[in-house]
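hey m, so remember when u said the tokens were messed up on ur end? i reran from scratch. heres the input so u can diff it against urs
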Amino acid sequence: MFDLNSLNPQQREAVVHRDGPLLLLAGAGSGKTRVITCRITYLLEQGVPADEILAVTFTNKAAKEMKERVEDMVGREAAKGMVIATFHSLCVRILKAHIDRLGYKKNFSIYPASDQQRLVRDLVREIGAETSSADADQVLFRISAAKNQLVRAEDYQASARDPFTSLVAAVYPRYQKKLKAYNAVDFDDLLLFGVTLLEQNPDLLEYYQRRFRYQMVDEYQDTNPVQYRLLRLLAGGHGNLCVVGDDDQSIYAFRGADVSNILDFEKDFPGTKVIKLEQNYRSTGNILAAANAVITNNTKRRDKKLWTAGGAGEQVDYLLCLDSEDEARQVMEMIHAEKYHKNLNYGDFAILYRTNTQSRAFEEQLRYENIPYVLIGGQQFFERKEIKDVVAYLRVILNATDEVNLLRIINYPKRGIGDSSIDRLIRYSAEQGLSLWKVLQQAAEVPDTNERTAAAISSFVNLLTGFRRRFQNPLRLVETLQELFREVKFADEIYRQEKDPAIAKRRVENQEELINSMAVYVERTPEPSLAGFLERISLQDDDGIGRNDKESKLAQDAVTLMSLHSSKGLEFPIVFLVGMEEGFLPHKKSIFETFDIDEERRLCYVGFTRAEKRLVLLGARQRRKYGKLEQREPSRFLSEIPAGQLNQPAPDKPIELTPEEQAKSASNFFSNISQMFGD
């Protein structure tokens, strides 16, 4: 049971609405989950059978929590029969009962990603296309995207405009035929086949429209075309569809989400009742004022304005820093000060950024200061493959007997030293009692090594030997690293492997950030060396601080680092939104596209509304690109916040601590130094 009087007027109106389409525009922090669960409870109390109620969410976790809340309100027995599920699990229910109508047996298998990848790679080879494993994975990515856009295998050929899409058009029908032969479906087929069943079988459609007479959908702004079509079909008979969402938080266009689904809901369902949930229970008045000021500049959105019955709170701060390292230092100082002054935990702080590349400076500074953190939605900087590849070269240049890293790079990028040749070299090394490096230096003498392979090995040895000499000049470490990038051609290899240019570009940018890290090291170190830089990197391999443990992330007392995309649905007392510059937020790829700018502004809005008590915006005057400093321009979104609402403290203003706090800070500092360099 629940008390209707415990809800605000708009929440109450949404809960008691029974028949007909309902669009619930739920702003950030407005209590939408509570409204959905209360609405389900209200329907049950009004005599609606539990098995006529359907609620659809995007994650199993959200579905489980929603079901548990309803059961707590009405009891498990009263809630028995209702369906609260994700889109995919709902379609599994439908397919298990009726997939035989599509020519499959009911005991079908759902192929995991690894099996999908293996099947597509086999098909690509059968066709005879000269592609890599990465190319085959991109074929699968395109097939997945097509299914989510309701483009079936027989229709894909019409969209083939270049050699790669022609390859996809050739593989897609073969892939579907193989799956059917194996009585298997993939994850995307679950939705597509669910829609196909309902479209091709009017009796089934009528049955499920009667079966689910009251339907609710959470996060409706994130629906893609196939999910939208499924909902249109299920609700077509009665129109009792309640969708809950916020167009201002539609930030997943790259996954296929279509914001027009929520913007055009009233056109799709005439007679829709629209209710706005604008009272925010999360953030202070000043934070909401800044968020409202930015988001109102979007060209296509529903008019709404968040407000709070709480106080105005602290002003939103904007800090213009010198560079990336200064930005990271300023954030660390504020974390220390806020933690001491307000008796907060590390888990109360979050650092949000537009791209995962930006995490590097913060990871290094957090580790240096021995502050625990968790990284959400991405690998730690030095764990990324493209970074490990470059670091492996540096380690072998410094120490040729490092055979683990030597084997990693011997044929990366590909230089004509195949696996069989490498196996032969390793066996010869063991038989002769020689190091692998020594064997490489005399590769022409190894039995069964042909001239072409011997020449490739000789070129590789000369490359490493030459760079060993060049890296001995401490005044040219950064320049030498840049030369290594150019001569090895890491970027070319990444673009060759990654069919998606956007992914390749991000990986190349990550590698460029390693050059920036080297430049910072040189600036800060009186006697820099390659050995010193690699030692500094080794210190990143700590005893657990910052480890990306998905089981315990957000549960431990640690500062959270995450991208804006990953932050949706979360909240923190204090949020640092960093990189408030043109090129980061908004991202450079979006600057000349109005529609993309709208999504970038929504990302900014999501970042603002993650903050409960304090929001700090930071940017830099200059940042390094490929080791060189470039001037930066403040984000246009900053200018959209009215004067007087944005506090701009001097960046060099000292943080005032009490004598006790100063002593504690000094103790922590020396403890950190001791741990880093030994007692």
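this time it looks ok to me. The chain is about 50% helix and 10% strand. if urs says something different then somethings off w ur setup not the seq
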